[in-house]
Specification:
158 residues; alpha/beta; Metallo-beta-lactamase, Chain A; five-stranded mixed sheet; 18% helix; globular
Length: 158
Amino acid sequence: MRRRPRLKRPKRPAFILPATNCRLVPSSAVSEGDLITVGELTLQVWETPGHAEGHLSFWMQGSDRTYLIGADLVFFGGKILLQNTHDCSISAYGRSVAKVAALDFDALLPGHQQISLSEGKRHVEQALALVEDACGAGAGAGRRGIGVHNRRRIGGHC
């Protein structure tokens, strides 16, 4: 039987975080339709609950294309992520995906994984088809393309 190698404890930490008392305090709240200016860019706020209450997405006009910054609403390939939390709702998810599917945009910038700089709307339309299919069949969680956090089935009313 082979013994597992033992890891040696480092003599000093690989990095040290500075001891600061940093608190971030929002300067104002945002809601759907608000415009946020960052340098020369302007982002339009869209309320997109479903993945979680209070979830926001942002639409932005760039110099050569329009963007949807979807955060955790829709991922590359039309995938969505349902969580086993009190504030995840497939019916709200469906309404939010339908809302952003009606927007005109070229690029999809999700909060994780691969981005799409062209044909980004295609991924949102794929997600919309998944959510509509899941709502038509009941719970639908666990079907291909719908991620289930913590490997539990999530039911719900659509």
